[in-house]
Design a protein that fits this description.
Chain B: This is Thiazole synthase. Chain B: Homotetramer. Forms heterodimers with either ThiH or ThiS. The structure holds 2 protein chains of 2 kinds. By secondary structure, chain A is of the alpha/beta class. Helix content of chain A is about 25%, strand content about 25%. Chain A has 8 helices and 17 strands. In chain A, a hairpin with a 2-residue loop joins strand 15 (about 280) and strand 16 (about 285-290). In chain A, helix 1 (about 10-20) runs parallel beside helix 6 and helix 1 packs across helix 8 (about 295-310). The longest helix of chain A has 18 residues, at about 295-310. The two termini of chain A are about 30 Å apart. In chain B, strands 3-2-1-8-7-6-5-4 form an 8-stranded parallel beta sheet. Chain B is globular and about 75 Å long. Chain B is an alpha/beta fold. Chain B has a single domain, classed as TIM Barrel, CATH 3.20.20.70. The chains are: A alpha/beta, B alpha/beta. The interface of A and B includes residues 58, 98, 208, 273 and 274 of A.
C-alpha cells in the first residue's frame, strides 16, 4: 500500500517520488502516458542548470534553490560542470554589461573565447558563469526513472483523479493539473545536428529581439531554445519562431546554416503569476506545479519541500497552504 | 487633457504588456505607475492566451489592442477585426510596419488601413511618424487620435525630433496625441508631456529595467509632472540672467 500517490511523471513528480523514497515513504507514481516521453514538457527542456543567468530576470528563490540543482542531479545522472557563456553580437554590447549588472557568479572574458571554446570564433567579449552546469534532459529523465526503479517504484500507466484516491496525493500533472492561477507559456525549440561544431557548454546569446540559448548534446547535436509566448497554442513550432531561432544561431556561428534540422518541438510550460513554482497544499492534495522554464533547475528543491511537508510537516518557502 | 474618442483617461501614461519578468511584476508595475491604459499584442500572445488575457483584464485599466508585427494594411485590418471580437473594444492601436530594422511605420499602408477601419467604426490610434502631411491625411481618413513616435520602437533614444513633434502638436490642436515608442527615460516622458502631448506610451523602458516596478512609478510621476507643467504656462527662456530677488539694497555683511 502506497503512502503517497503521485500523479504525473515529469521532472516534478519524479523528484517528489525520489525525495519521498529517501524520506522512507513508499510513493506510487501514475501517469496517463506512462514513463516520460514527448507527451510531457520535461522532454523538451534545454537542460541548463543556470541559476545565476536566470537570476537576471527571475525571482531570488530561483537562484537560491537553483544553486543546489546541479549537485542533486549529479546523484542520478551525468552533469557537465562546465559553466556557461553569455555573449552578444558586437552591436549589442551594452546588453552584456547590463546582464552583468543584474547577475552574480560571473567573470568577464575579453579577447575572444580561444581558451574556453576554441571552436567559437565570433564573440570577442563574454560573461563566463563558471559554477553553472548542464545535463541531457532525456537521459536525466531515464536515469531518474531508473533510480526510482532501483527503489522499487515503477511508473504506472493510467489515469487517476486526485479525488478518487485515498491518502495524500501529489498532483504533478503540469498543464493537465488545475491549481488556481496556473497559466501556460508556450515554448518552442529546435535540435540541430552539426558534427563539425564543438561546444562544451551552453551559450546564451543576448539579443534585443531574439534571445537564444544553445545547449550542446552528445553526438554533435545542439538544442536551440526557446521562445516564451503567453499562449496556450499547442501546435508545432511556428515558421516565425523557427526563423528567429535559426537566424540567431546563424548569427552566433554561420556554420549552423549547414546543420541538419533533426527535430523541432513545442509545448506549454505551466507557470504561476510570479513564475516561481509552488507546492500548493489543498487538503489532501499537494499541487507541485508552475515550474515555468525552470523545471530541471527547481524540481529537486520542489520535490524535497513536498516530501518534507508530507513526512515532517515542515513548510518550506515554496509551500503555500490554500 | 483632450479625450480619446470621447473617453477621458485618468492619467497620461499608457503601458505595454510584453517582456516583463513575470505577470506578477507586470501587475505591480501597472499599479505603481498609475497607468490608465494597457496595450496588448494580438498576434502572438492573445490569440490562445486566455490566461494572460485574464491577467490583463485584472489590471483594471482600459485595454488598447494593437496590430504589432503587421507588415501590410491587409494584415493589420484582419488583426484589428480579430482584436475587436476578442477584446470587445472598438479601440485599435494601428501599427503597419514598413521597415524590418527600424520598425518604422509604413505611411501608405497605415493610411489605407486607417481609412478602412475608421469606416468600420473602429477608434483608430495610428502609430505614425511626426510627418505633418501624413498626420493630415490620417485625420482626413477618420483618425481622431495620433500616435507619433519618439524614436524607433524599443530603442530608448527618447524624442529624436523635438522640432517635428512640436510642429505636429501645433498643427492639430484638437487631435489627442500620444508619443509612442522610443522612450527610454522618465525625462523623455516629461518632455513629451511638457510639449503638450496628451499621453505617452511605452513598454521596453519599464519592462526591461532592472527594477520594472520602480521605473514604472518613475514614468508615472514624470508623465504627470509634464502634464502639470504643460498646463502651468511655463516661463519663456531668456538670454540674460534675471535675479529672483533684487540686488540693490542687499544687506552688507
Amino acid at each position: 500500500m502506497a503512502d503517497v500517490t503521485i500523479i504525473g511523471a515529469g521532472v516534478a513528480g519524479l523528484w517528489a517520488a525520489l525525495a519521498l523514497c529517501k524520506a522512507g515513504a513508499a510513493p506510487r507514481v501514475i501517469d496517463r502516458s506512462g514513463p516520460p516521453g514527448p507527451h510531457g514538457c520535461s522532454w523538451w527542456a534545454g537542460g541548463m542548470l543556470a541559476p545565476f543567468c536566470e537570476g537576471a530576470v527571475a525571482e531570488p528563490a530561483i537562484v537560491r534553490h537553483g544553486r543546489e540543482a546541479a549537485r542533486a542531479w549529479a546523484e542520478v545522472t551525468p552533469v557537465a560542470h562546465r559553466g556557461s557563456l553569455v555573449v552578444t553580437l558586437e552591436r549589442d554590447r551594452g546588453e552584456l554589461a547590463r546582464f552583468a549588472r543584474r547577475t552574480e557568479g560571473h567573470e568577464w572574458v575579453t579577447g575572444g573565447l580561444r581558451d574556453l571554446e576554441p571552436d567559437l570564433p565570433g564573440p570577442s567579449q563574454a560573461l563566463f558563469f563558471a559554477q553553472e552546469a548542464h545535463l541531457d534532459p532525456r537521459r536525466a529523465l531515464a536515469d531518474l526513472v531508473a533510480a526510482l526503479a532501483a527503489r522499487g517504484v515503477q511508473i504506472e500507466t493510467g489515469t487517476a483523479c486526485p479525488e478518487e484516491i485515498a491518502g495524500p496525493v501529489i498532483d504533478a500533472r503540469g498543464m493537465a493539473g488545475t491549481p488556481p492561477g496556473l497559466r501556460p507559456v508556450r515554448g518552442e525549440m529546435v535540435v540541430l545536428g552539426a558534427p563539425d561544431i564543438s561546444l562544451s557548454r551552453p551559450v546564451r546569446l543576448l539579443h534585443p529581439r531574439h534571445p537564444l540559448y544553445i545547449v550542446p548534446r552528445r553526438g554533435g547535436l545542439f538544442m536551440l531554445g526557446a521562445t516564451q509566448i503567453e499562449s496556450a497554442d499547442r501546435r508545432g513550432v511556428s515558421a516565425r519562431s523557427l526563423l528567429e531561432l535559426l537566424s540567431a544561431a546563424y548569427a552566433l556561428d554561420p556554420r549552423f546554416a549547414e546543420a541538419e534540422v533533426v527535430e523541432t518541438g513545442a509545448d506549454l510550460r505551466p507557470a504561476f503569476a510570479d513564475n516561481v513554482p509552488r507546492v500548493l497544499a489543498q487538503g489532501r492534495v499537494l499541487h507541485l506545479n508552475g515550474l515555468f522554464r525552470h523545471g530541471y533547475l527547481m524540481a529537486p528543491a520542489l520535490g524535497r519541500q513536498a516530501a518534507r511537508y508530507l513526512t515532517e510537516g515542515i513548510k518550506g518557502d515554496l509551500v503555500h497552504e490554500d | 487633457m483632450r479625450d480619446f474618442y470621447d473617453t477621458a483617461f485618468d492619467t497620461p501614461l499608457m503601458l505595454g504588456t510584453a517582456q516583463y519578468p513575470s505577470p506578477a511584476i507586470m501587475e505591480a508595475a501597472f499599479r505603481a505607475s498609475g497607468a490608465s491604459v494597457a496595450t496588448v499584442s494580438l498576434r502572438r500572445e492573445a490569440g490562445q492566451g486566455q490566461a494572460f488575457w485574464d491577467i490583463i483584464r485584472g489590471l483594471g485599466v482600459h485595454v488598447l489592442p494593437n496590430t504589432a508585427g503587421c507588415h501590410s494594411a491587409r494584415e493589420a485590418i484582419t488583426t484589428a477585426r480579430m482584436a475587436r471580437d476578442l477584446f470587445e473594444t472598438d479601440r485599435i492601436k494601428l501599427e503597419v510596419i514598413g521597415h524590418a530594422d527600424t520598425l518604422q511605420p509604413d505611411p501608405f499602408g497605415l493610411l489605407e488601413a486607417t481609412e478602412v477601419l475608421a469606416a468600420e467604426g473602429f477608434e483608430v490610434f495610428p502609430y505614425t511618424t511626426e510627418d505633418l502631411v501624413l498626420a493630415g491625411r490620417l485625420v482626413d481618413a477618420g483618425a481622431r487620435v495620433l500616435m507619433p513616435w519618439g524614436a524607433p520602437i524599443g530603442s530608448g533614444l527618447g524624442l529624436n525630433n523635438r522640432h517635428g513633434l512640436r510642429t505636429l502638436r501645433a498643427g492639430f490642436p484638437d487631435i489627442a496625441m500620444v508619443v509612442d515608442a522610443g522612450l527610454g527615460l522618465p525625462s523623455h516622458a516629461a518632455a513629451a508631456m511638457e510639449m503638450g502631448f496628451d499621453a505617452v506610451l511605452l513598454n521596453t523602458a519599464v519592462a526591461q529595467a532592472g527594477d520594472p516596478v520602480a521605473m514604472a512609478e518613475a514614468f508615472g510621476l514624470a508623465a504627470r509632472a509634464g502634464a502639470l507643467a504643460a498646463r502651468a504656462d511655463a516661463m519663456a527662456p531668456r538670454e540674460m540672467a534675471t535675479p529672483s530677488t533684487p540686488l540693490i539694497g542687499k544687506a552688507w555683511l
